[in-house]
Amino acid sequence: MKLSQFKFKLPEEKIALHPAKYRDESRLMVVHKSTGEIEHVMFKDILNYFDDKDVFIFNDTKVFPARLYGNKEKTGARIEVFLLRELNEELRLWDVLVDPARKIRIGNKLYFGDDDSMVAEVIDNTTSRGRTLRFLYDGPHDEFKKALYALGEPPLPPFIHRPAEPEDEERFQTIFAKNEGAVTVPAAGLHFSRELMKRMEIKGIDFAFITMHCGLGNFRDIDVEDLTKHKMDSEQMFVNAEACRIVNEAKDRGNKVCAVGTTVMRTIETAVGTDGHLKEFEGWTNKFIFPPYDFSVANAMVSNFQMPLSTMLMLKCAYGGYELIMDAYNIALKENYRFGTYGDAMLILDK
């Protein structure tokens, strides 16, 4: 497959800038792989496609407020700092992106907060935009993290062209977010409300939780036409014994196993054994899934409507079939589905 095969015209007004009023009341397109049938329902109707002992696999990563704005010493120039990950807890070292990068050099100090209460020093240049910052903070680590995060805001993706608002603190996070480490939200999980998950439990549906800390690589442009030459950024992931037990028992029974989102699908395809069973895993993955690809674990998938040329769209086409999914996207555009992180969802069923 070539990069250009995943290009389509997406009008700006089709991208959702705000979430639906209620999590489970966005729209849901249901795509049946075996027949090609497409249905249009509400997200809360997803319940109707699953039965007792079926399993949903969720990503319980938690997004932290990664976008900060500061000022450079002496010049006072405004600098955007995007926290990527903590490199050293004791030394307060963080891997970050800075913008505009050309203004920031080793030795520069950056000041954050209305009273400049948080100070960081640039100690390394790692890439053209990347830097290592050392935050100059004397208190305990948990106090430092609390103070740092108080200065940050939800890291909305680049296609949501607006500043973060108070609603984003709650809505740019799944209700089951638990393990902190993501700089963007696993979007398919945003549609699940407490009420819907309670109804799923009552119906006898089981939940398994894995963790993949979603990184900015999900939004990085692919700059090669030949997809076999593209390298994904590595993301940290964890699959525990309990998740393996729940998923493998469902597979052995012949029940449906639904991957909620592309991050879940990449995680379980990384951690699958040769026997098709999920294995415990703790580490990093840079798995890039695009057509053709044989999936081993899930036989259903929930996913949002992603951007053109994105790795998430490629994975979805690998799972649902290129022609069927691209046709479904054309229908979504005609039917005014909302695209992006805060947009509507698609359920793909094997049978």
TrEMBL record:
Keywords: Cytoplasm, Glycosyltransferase, Isomerase, Queuosine biosynthesis, S-adenosyl-L-methionine, Transferase. One of its GO terms (biological process) is tRNA queuosine(34) biosynthetic process. It catalyses: 7-aminomethyl-7-carbaguanosine(34) in tRNA + S-adenosyl-L-methionine = epoxyqueuosine(34) in tRNA + adenine + L-methionine + 2 H(+). It is found in: Cytoplasm. Its EC number is 2.4.99.17. Signal peptide: none annotated. Pathway: tRNA modification; tRNA-queuosine biosynthesis. It is an enzyme of class 2 (transferase). InterPro entries: QueA, QueA_dom1, QueA_dom2, QueA_sf. It comes from the Bacteria. GO terms for cellular component: cytoplasm. GO terms for molecular function: S-adenosylmethionine:tRNA ribosyltransferase-isomerase activity. Monomer. Transfers and isomerizes the ribose moiety from AdoMet to the 7-aminomethyl group of 7-deazaguanine (preQ1-tRNA) to give epoxyqueuosine (oQ-tRNA). Belongs to the QueA family. This is S-adenosylmethionine:tRNA ribosyltransferase-isomerase. The gene is queA.
